[in-house]
Write a structure and sequence with these properties.
This protein is of the alpha/beta class and about 230 residues long. Helix content is about 35%, strand content about 30%. The model has no long low-confidence stretch (mean pLDDT about 95).
Length: about 230
């Protein structure tokens, strides 16, 4: 089992008010799964993926990654585990505007200690995988929104993470481009066995996964197999 959450609860304190944002979460994600997490704004999706992605460790209960708990690990250890194990793809791409595409994608490798010379062929291969083989020297503003999201996917893939968290990856894209981006995720999962945790509020996008978690008011309300996939 890659990820296990056992009786996880999370609270936010805001002045005198106490908000219960994750309620008794029990969730297991196996290697090679494509899991969709769906819920409305404010349902607790972001709190859940921040916990899974080693960004937040202020919670009650147990989170095991590859059978180990990192809740009491040092900040440096947590950052190292996050950089080595998780690839993040966000709705707004989070690319550095003045950097070339190559420089954007190589960042996780440089953080991991690789030299720029060693990183370059790895980056170029990642760009080929997302259909951007001739874009390494461009800057983000020279690319369309869909192309920028492909860059973000390449950046998430480049260090061969244990899993990818895709947080509303199609939220800023039109329908046709969204389908193209989701097809990349599906191909990565089916052809390369990449574990993907997709967060969305869009029922159609959720159908690209094989399993669907529904979350509302911080609680999991459904955990079901996806039987009718989005059209290829």
């Amino acid at each position: 089992m890659l990820i296990e959450l056992k009786s996880v609860n999370k609270y936010y304190q805001n002045g005198a008010q106490n908000f219960h944002v994750l309620r008794d979460i029990n969730l297991a994600i196996d290697r090679g799964e494509f899991l969709s997490i769906m819920g409305p704004s404010g349902a607790g999706k972001t709190s859940l993926i921040n916990l899974i992605g080693f960004i937040d460790r202020q919670y009650e209960g147990e989170y095991l990654f590859n059978g180990d708990s990192y809740q009491k690990a040092s900040d440096n250890t947590l950052a190292r585990i996050r950089n080595r194990s998780v690839g993040f793809v966000f709705q707004n791409f989070k690319l550095i505007g003045n950097n070339t595409i190559l420089e954007n994608v190589e960042l996780p490798l440089l953080y991991g200690g690789m030299t720029k010379r060693a990183a370059k062929p790895v980056v170029e291969q990642a760009l080929i995988r997302v259909g951007l083989s001739n874009s390494s020297q461009k800057i983000p503003s020279e690319l369309s929104g869909g192309q920028q999201q492909r860059v973000a996917i390449a950046r998430a893939l480049v260090h061969q993470p244990k899993f990818i968290i895709a947080d509303e990856p199609t939220g800023a894209l039109d329908t046709k481009t969204s389908a193209e981006i989701m097809q990349i995720f599906r191909d990565l999962n089916r052809n390369e066995g990449t574990t993907i945790v997709l967060v969305t509020h869009d029922p159609q996008v959720s159908l690209y996964g094989d399993r669907l978690i529904k979350i509302l008011d911080g609680a999991i309300t459904a955990d079901e197999e996806v039987t009718q996939h989005a059209l290829l």
